[in-house]
Each structure stands twice: as C-alpha cells, then as structure tokens.
Amino acid sequence: MRIYIYNGGLGLVGKSGVGQAIRQQWACLRRAGVPTGDRWTADTAAIQVNTVLPDSVAAALLARLRGRKVVCYGHSTMEDFRGSFRGSDLLAPLFRRWITFCYGLGDVVITPTEYSRRLLLGYGVKKPVYALSNGVDTDFFAPSPERRAAFRRRWRLAEGERAVISVGHTIARKGLPEFLDLARQLPAVRFFWYGWTDPRLIPTDIQKALDQAPANVTFPGFVDRETLREAYCGADVFAFMSHEETEGIVVLEALACGTPTVVRDIPVYDGWLRDGETVYKGSDQGEFIQKVSELLAGTLPDVTPAGRRVAQERNYEAVGRRLRDIYRREGILPQPRLSLK
C-alpha cells in the first residue's frame, strides 16, 4: 500500500516551513520503509495533504469519492496566522473556521506538537489528532568546523567578530522587529536574517522596519539548505524570537547543528525545550539582549550537546517509524505479520 503525498500548492508554500515539511515527509516515510507516490495509483491507501488551500480541499474530497483515506497535516492555526501578512489579524477568525473545516475532511489529523494538538481540539476538530514532530535530518544538519569556517569566509568576518542569525519570513510574528532592535543594541555584532516574504504581503510598518534596518544587519534572503546549514554552523547564536509556532523546524535544524539557541518563552516549547538545559529562553526584549550577550561572551553554560540530543530524538528515522505506526493504528497501512520463528 502506498501513501500519496499531495504536493499541490508547493509553488506557493515551498519557501515556508510547510514546504519544508512536505519534503521531509518523503524522507521520513521512505526511511521507515513506507512506499510513497506523487499521484494516484491502484495501490494508493491514503492521500496526505499539508495545506489548507482550495486545491488541497479538492484533492481530499476526490479521495473520499474514491473511498481512500485522507490524512491532514495541521501545520496552520489561527494563532500563528495572526501577525503574519497584510490583513491577517482581521482575517484570523475566518481563517480558524476555514482550517477547522479543512482538517475535518481528514480521517486522521497530524500536527507537530502537543501544543498545536490542544489548539486544534479546542477548535472542535472531531477526528483523531496526533502530535508528531516534523522531524529534522540530523545527518545533514550537524556540527562542522569546516562549514563554520566557510560561513566566516563568505561574510568576511574578522577574527573574533561575532555573528547572530535568525531564519523565517520577514514578518512581525517571527520576531523581526525584536531582532532588528537586538542588532541596534549590539552594534559590534553581525546579524543575518535568512528568509524572504513577497513585499506585497508585508504590512507597511514591517516594510518600514526593514528599510530602516541597522547597518550591522544583512538579509541574505531565501537560500538553499546547504547555505542555510553553513549559516547554522557558522553562527555564534541562533536567535529565534517568534511569537507563535506550531513547532519551529528551524529550531530543530539549529539544535542539530549545535548552534547556541535563544527562543521566546512561548507554550509550544513547553515540555521538550528546557531553559538552561537545551536552549535559553527569553520572555521580553531585555532578557533576549541579556542572554544573547552572555552567550556571545561565553558566560552561560554550553547546552548545545543536550540540544542536539533533542534534535536526534526527532530525526527522520524516528519520525518515520512513528508515522508508520499511526497509519497502522488507524487502519491505513496493514499491521506487520507476526513471525512464526
């Protein structure tokens, strides 16, 4: 039996975490020995959809007409839609109703964390909802002195010069204003924001903030995963001040690369990222400035080995096995045959 991973809409979400999650699902299932495909075949057991775009709704409805199972990935919530793009705050209540309808089309809903699972259940989603990490390729994302050196050469960083990075859409929800303020407070440090958003979607105040960014901030834009891996390995701190996430794939990538990481203290990290043990957390701008400064100065304990273990617990093999088990439990894939030996 084969899982059809629907990739319609990938052109629109390819530069986002959802696009990355779609690509990761292929790898996770293959490493778990689950056959996958990108179209309907005679042995298709279920279709797996990742967006709430109209084409995904049509694909889910077609699957139901064909008598096949539908698996909906719950990457989006009303909470992480707010503060994103132009007009998102006004549309958030309607968005909640829309995604509740979309997820209701699934026989099974999978969402990255217990936090996002609670949100979806609170919306009234009645189907089984499982919390399962998007996963991270810990073979690819790993510490490397060579890639650290390459990053420093690429950006002509002087001996002893420090670098702080962040990754994501250039939007308020991802903590862009706070990142720019952090750069102003630490003018001797180089700051790099990896990611891109269509300027037509960016609210006026965020576009103004981008235009007035301090001189020590560089925007490399959207880059390939090899260049991003180099940045994680080369950075002295990964500062991810996002206000809302359903998981944060980039956090797992940074942890896998052994990058000292500071995140906002928000509920999505409760229970799996511990302040002072695997990452450092900040509740306000003062704490961000303090903890980033102390990491750069080397006065905080090194928790990167424990952070990498968190990532390894969510590697492709582990996530693939868990996803295969969910499919077996829900009758999408057959149970393994018992050996008589």
Question: Could you characterize what this model shows?
Answer:
By secondary structure, the chain is an alpha/beta fold. It folds into 2 domains: 2-135 and 315-329, 3-Layer(aba) Sandwich (Rossmann fold); 145-312, Rossmann fold. It contains 14 helices and 12 strands. It has helices spanning 10-13, 17-31, 54-65, 78-81, 88-104, 114-123, 145-154, 176-185, 204-211, 225-234, 249-256, 285-297, 304-312, 316-329, and strands at residues 2-5, 36-37, 44-49, 69-73, 108-111, 129-131, 163-167, 190-194, 217-221, 237-240, 261-264, 280-282. The strands form 2 sheets. Strands 2-1-3-4-5-6 form a 6-stranded parallel β-sheet, with helices on both faces. Strand 5 (108-111), helix 6 (114-123) and strand 6 form a beta-alpha-beta unit. Helix 7 packs across helix 10. The two termini are 25 Å apart. The model has no long low-confidence stretch (mean pLDDT 95).
